[in-house]
Design brief:
Oligomer: single chain
Number of helices: 4
Protein name: Thymidylate kinase
InterPro entries: P-loop_NTPase
Keywords: Kinase, Transferase
Strand content: 5-15%
Helix content: 40-55%
Radius of gyration: 18 Å
Number of strands: 3
GO molecular function, one term: kinase activity
Length: about 130
Amino acid sequence: MQSITPPLIAVIGSDGSGKSTVCEHLITVVEKYGAAERVHLGKQAGNVGRSVTKLPLMGKSLHKTIERNQVKTAKKLPGPVPALVITAFVARRLLRFRHMLACRRRGLIVLTDRYPQDQIPGAYDGTV
């Protein structure tokens, strides 16, 4: 006897290509074929950065600080606070990946916004 696993559909593309927007609309179509779950498997660091810049009073200055420090720290090891933030992002991403696996085990159609790749070493979640 062979079990049929529902599909896992990954929407991939370069930054700013509209993956999240496509997934928002696509999930309503996918749900017509069965129980479905949308899972974001990307880093979401860009979303956090955009949210920070929208903060009243401090948003613009924080954005400038983040931009300036990105270039400086690209080749240095992070300090304790940035390391803690990075660890939190990694843990959050791992939990979302495990949630996706649990949805698959429950027989749901899974629609993912991005999908982890391992062709290029490093923190990439887009296309190769």
